[in-house]
Recover the amino acids of this structure.
């Protein structure tokens, strides 16, 4: 780790002022992506601005008639164990409970994960599939516009992710195949049927541009929300990431299998 | 039959088990007492004494030690697999804040620092004798703390930077400018030995520095000619690494007044570190003290000297302050000594009834950039025929340099590799020739009536009941009820597969061990021993042995290890040697202690030693009520006779052959290729078992380690760049508690005739058959796709590919 200065702002304006006043700053939330990166000397921000004490971001879960609203600094285990979320979108709490291990879930946050947009992270699939809205210190960004490729989002430099508002679906399911080493998703599908009837299929862990909607699967499932409706549907391997754990053709295959399994497990999760 | 040890001095070795019993083997009365006491008590599952200390953070690991005025070291490592060092510019690093010292390979030569005397060729009487192609002693590649000529693998240390803080040292290390000249490289085992491969050492242009053929060539040729069937197989038992929980660390200090060095460094045995590092520094062994207390995992990776251990000592003399180095996890992945990496071509000759007639095996071991240990190749060489009676065998054993990290003995060194080969060959033979795979094995097993049994490459198996192990493993694994379980799994979209393997392994290890036992005035017993635990529970099982023999509560016995100022001789812990060597020498020392006690008691009572009885730690004069307990005796006779204390040395060369069988059941997810182990059963003949609780724990860990290699672990290297791809836990897959089933383990005790306690060895038996058992199970599950063999690790992608190729082929 290189030398860096730690800041603990208590308000949004203070955080933004700090960011704008320094040459090379980075926001810090649960630190479970950023700190390992610093420790392996792959990043060297001169200032770390801890956002977890800002009241607007604070750990919070609010469930209204149509929405689940989660504060950016809410840790994965809080989402996983939330009775309110379990009651309305069990696939979402189940997804949070499938992230990393106990330590990771007690430190990592939804905001950090969504801001980071790791192509193998879990949350981006829920954000996209549940037509969520990302609220920042300055605007609201619909999920469709928010994710812009590997580790890339619509957030501008210095923009702070404050909270995420998910639509409560009629039903949703999450299926994930984990990387045997890292246990991040190697291919995962979040399938939602919204209250107005439209279907969203979001795939994470697999695409070479990060999380994406699999529209062909959405069309099939709009006809019939069954695994059988997906029979024979494949995805082009050239859209997939390939690595030592899963070449592109295997990932493409897993995407199809996980999408079927998400449908077979609507109202819950299926983790392999 | 001709002596198969063709390259050994003819007639030089007569195996002790093959010699007529000598009269001197008679036991002394004290030794009898000790044995009786011991055999009455051992086998108790005493919980581990050390656990309370370890789980409450009171362990003393290397990095826990700090010294006043301590500085920190960082290492500059090669980013290339093979590159010449045309120069090193230290200027910028030396100007960096807090940096005190920068040293390179040039400084090593200038200071006369020697290479590490790894002595890689195993040399006990019963090790296979590995030589260069022309029969000469092999060139093994000098291991200087820092090379001056070139780097031979990614991560090789080329400079050390010492600074006031660890961060400043790391900053400084980035500013050391090395003028690199990249060279052609080779990392793959088979390619490194192929004609035209880039040369790693000019002394060995073709990289193959060991090439020895063992066995009866003519006999084997004749057997192959007469055979009805020949089955062939190609295998690569791939490279893995130890992933110890505690990264290696060292703290060195030099005292200019006494001219003595002190090293805190967890290892597999402090005495070896002391002896070899003193040679590196060019000093007398007495001028180096090595302390090694708690060690957070070894598995062989820590048995040999690491360059950083020598570097902190040398640097501390240079700057006159202590120097500490603690490896990061990335450095551990790159530069911990690694394991396995053996390529094998095998041929098995059978007659029409399935009787094995002969075996040919060509084993090629990848040692990395230089040879640190040939133990894996050598250990495996003696066991190529496995648990089977194969009358003729020829083994060509070769070792090759490559541009990779060095390999070393790793959990059950060499034996899982050859067990994998022979057990896969059994499956291939059964499949190709239409035999039942269990019956084929059964008909070829070495029977108990042949013990001690000399195999076709000259290893003498001491004892064992192999078929009984096999029967018991099948029984407790409910092998016969498999079909019902398979049908049930199918209803869930899973394909159930089952795998079986027999194994026999050898345990030799450094032959010398010393025990010192002292009856302390405070009512405790202190035992000094030169083995080094890294989780095996010696503080409990060793204390248990001594407590039983001297007949005192185990709480009173304290095991002292890991400080070379106290422990002067000691072979360390490897090759399953500790309990056998330490147990035996502790028994001998206990007998000596009782003999001395009887002598002193006799004097006190005005009698002769043969009139003194001993029970419950009390000496008693026969037919009288005169008694004295051992602690009181120590106190009362101290002034006249000195401390009640004995030192005993022992040397044992004869290897033992632990053996057993394992059964594994896996569920393969038909759609994804995901593999889950659902059942795992083992029988392990460990000889006499001192503490079954500890042996089971060691076996469980051993299984996980073997299963880990079979299913996930792989030191992958990008063939195009030579860069390691699995440099962190993000890419190096490890076994986890939720990917392991509940183990069903049983211990079989067939006492070894080679040592007074009848001990063989435990723990490594968990690992030895695991690779074969898992792969046999996965291949069995995939048989419906026409799969006959599969390369480890059997990751989901590999399994899916195999199913797919099978589907296409059919
Ligand atoms: C061992 C391990 C296993 C893991 N396994 C998984 C897994 O299976 N699935 C998974 O999805 N994740 C996994 N993770 C990642 C984990 O969920 C991370 O915690 C998460 O991705 C990042 O959240 P964080 O709060 O830790 O963010 P940090 O690490 O603090 O920050 C991440 C990035 O987001 C930025 N950032 C943080 N907060 C904000 C904000 N409010 N506004 C703007 N930018 C912000 C930071 O500047 C930084 O660039 C794992 C992590 C580890 C260490």
């Amino acid at each position: 780790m290189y030398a860096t200065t730690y800041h603990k702002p208590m308000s949004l304006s203070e955080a933004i002022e700090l960011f704008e006043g320094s040459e090379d700053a980075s926001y810090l939330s649960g630190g479970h992506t950023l700190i390992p990166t610093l420790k392996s000397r792959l990043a060297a921000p001169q200032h770390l601005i801890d956002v977890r004490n800002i009241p607007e971001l604070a750990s919070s879960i609010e469930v209204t008639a149509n929405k689940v609203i989660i504060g950016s600094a809410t840790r994965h285990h809080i989402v996983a164990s939330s009775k309110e979320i379990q009651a309305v979108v069990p696939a979402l709490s189940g997804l949070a409970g499938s992230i990393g291990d106990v330590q990771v879930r007690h430190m990592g946050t939804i905001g950090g994960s969504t801001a980071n947009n790791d192509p193998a992270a879990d949350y981006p699939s829920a954000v996209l599939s549940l037509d969520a809205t990302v609220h920042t210190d300055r605007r609201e960004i619909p999920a469709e516009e928010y994710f812009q490729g590997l580790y890339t989002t619509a957030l501008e430099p210095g923009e702070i992710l404050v909270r995420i508002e998910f639509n409560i679906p009629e039903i949703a399911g999450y299926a994930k195949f984990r990387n045997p080493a890292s246990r991040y998703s190697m291919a995962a599908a979040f399938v939602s049927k919204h209250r107005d009837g439209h279907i969203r299929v979001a795939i994470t862990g697999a695409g070479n541009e990060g999380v994406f909607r699999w529209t062909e699967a959405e069309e099939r499932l709009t006809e019939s929300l069954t695994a059988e409706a997906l029979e024979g549907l494949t995805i082009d391997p050239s859209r997939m990431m390939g690595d030592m754990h899963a070449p592109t053709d295997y990932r493409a295959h897993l995407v199809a299998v996980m999408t079927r399994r998400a449908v077979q497990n609507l109202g819950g999760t299926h983790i392999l | 039959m001709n002596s198969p040890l063709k390259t050994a001095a003819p007639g030089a070795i007569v195996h002790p088990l093959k010699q007529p019993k000598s009269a001197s083997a008679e036991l002394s009365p004290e030794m009898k007492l000790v044995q009786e006491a011991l055999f009455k008590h051992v086998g108790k599952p005493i919980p581990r004494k050390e656990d309370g200390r370890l789980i409450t953070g009171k362990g003393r690991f290397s990095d826990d030690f700090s010294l006043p005025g301590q500085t920190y070291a960082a290492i500059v490592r090669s980013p290339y697999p093979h590159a010449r060092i045309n120069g090193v510019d230290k200027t910028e690093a030396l100007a960096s804040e807090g940096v005190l010292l920068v040293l390179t390979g040039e400084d090593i030569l200038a200071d006369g620092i020697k290479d590490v005397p790894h002595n890689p060729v195993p040399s006990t009487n019963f090790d296979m004798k590995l030589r260069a192609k022309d029969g000469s002693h092999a060139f093994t590649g000098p291991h200087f703390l820092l090379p001056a000529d070139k780097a031979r693998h990614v991560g090789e240390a080329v400079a050390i930077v010492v600074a006031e803080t660890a961060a400043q040292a790391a900053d400084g290390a980035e500013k050391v400018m090395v003028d690199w000249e990249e060279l052609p490289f080779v990392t793959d085992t088979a390619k490194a030995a192929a004609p035209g491969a880039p040369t790693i050492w000019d002394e060995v242009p073709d990289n193959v520095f060991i090439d020895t053929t063992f066995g009866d060539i003519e006999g084997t040729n004749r057997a192959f000619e007469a055979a009805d069937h020949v089955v062939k197989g190609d295998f690569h038992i791939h490279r893995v690494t130890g992933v110890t929980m505690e990264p290696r660390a060292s703290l060195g200090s030099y005292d200019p007044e006494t001219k003595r060095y002190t090293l805190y460094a967890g290892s597999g045995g402090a005495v070896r570190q002391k002896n070899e590092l003193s040679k590196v520094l060019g000093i007398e062994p007495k001028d180096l003290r090595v302390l090694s207390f708690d060690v957070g995992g070894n598995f062989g990776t820590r048995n040999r000297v690491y360059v950083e251990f020598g570097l902190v000592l040398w640097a501390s003399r240079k700057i006159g302050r202590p120097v500490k180095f603690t490896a990061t996890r990335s450095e551990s992945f790159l530069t911990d000594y690694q394991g396995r990496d053996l390529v094998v071509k095998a041929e098995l000759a059978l007659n029409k009834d399935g009787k094995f007639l002969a075996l040919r095996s060509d084993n090629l071991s990848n040692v990395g950039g230089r040879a640190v240990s040939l133990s894996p190749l050598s250990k495996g060489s003696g066991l190529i025929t496995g648990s089977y009676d194969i009358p003729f065998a020829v083994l060509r054993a070769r070792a090759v340099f490559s541009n990779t990290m060095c390999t070393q003995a790793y959990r059950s060194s060499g034996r899982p590799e050859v067990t994998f080969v022979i057990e896969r060959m059994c499956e291939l033979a059964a499949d190709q020739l239409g035999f039942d795979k269990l019956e084929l094995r059964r008909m070829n097993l070495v029977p108990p009536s042949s013990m001690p049994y000399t195999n076709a490459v000259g290893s003498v198996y001491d004892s064992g009941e192999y078929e009984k192990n096999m029967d018991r493993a099948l029984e407790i694994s409910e092998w016969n009820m498999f079909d019902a379980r398979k049908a049930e799994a199918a209803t869930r979209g899973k394909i159930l597969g089952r795998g079986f393997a027999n194994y026999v392994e050898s345990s030799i290890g450094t032959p010398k061990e010393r025990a010192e036992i002292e009856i302390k005035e405070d009512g405790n017993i202190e035992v000094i021993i030169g083995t080094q635990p890294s989780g095996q529970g010696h503080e409990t099982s060793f204390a248990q042995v001594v407590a039983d023999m001297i007949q005192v509560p185990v709480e009173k016995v304290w095991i002292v290890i890991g400080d070379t100022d106290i422990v002067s001789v000691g072979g360390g812990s490897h090759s399953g040697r500790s309990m056998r060597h330490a147990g035996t020498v502790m028994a001998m020392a206990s007998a000596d202690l009782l003999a001395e006690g009887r002598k002193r008691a006799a004097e006190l009572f005005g009698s002769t030693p043969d009139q003194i009885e001993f029970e419950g730690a009390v000496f008693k004069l026969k037919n009288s009520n005169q008694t004295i307990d051992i602690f009181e005796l120590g106190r009362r006779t101290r002034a006249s006779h000195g401390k009640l204390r004995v030192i005993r040395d022992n040397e044992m060369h004869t290897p033992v052959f632990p053996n057993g069988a394992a059964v594994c059941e896996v569920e393969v997810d038909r759609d994804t290729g995901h593999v889950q182990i659902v059942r795992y059963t083992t029988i392990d003949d460990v000889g006499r078992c001192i503490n079954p609780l500890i042996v089971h724990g060691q076996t469980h860990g051993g299984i996980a380690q073997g299963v880990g290699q079979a299913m996930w672990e792989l030191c992958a290297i990008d063939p195009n760049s030579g860069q390691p791809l699995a440099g962190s836990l993000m890419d190096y897959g490890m076994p986890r508690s939720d990917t392991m089933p509940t183990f069903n383990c049983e211990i079989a005790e067939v006492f070894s005739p080679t040592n007074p306690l009848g001990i063989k060895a435990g723990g490594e038996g968990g690992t030895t058959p695991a690779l074969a058992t898992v792969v046999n199970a996965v291949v069995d599950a995939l048989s419906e796709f026409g799969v006959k063999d599969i390369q480890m690790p059997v990751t989901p992608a590999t399994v899916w590919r195999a199913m797919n190729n099978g589907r296409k082929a059919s």
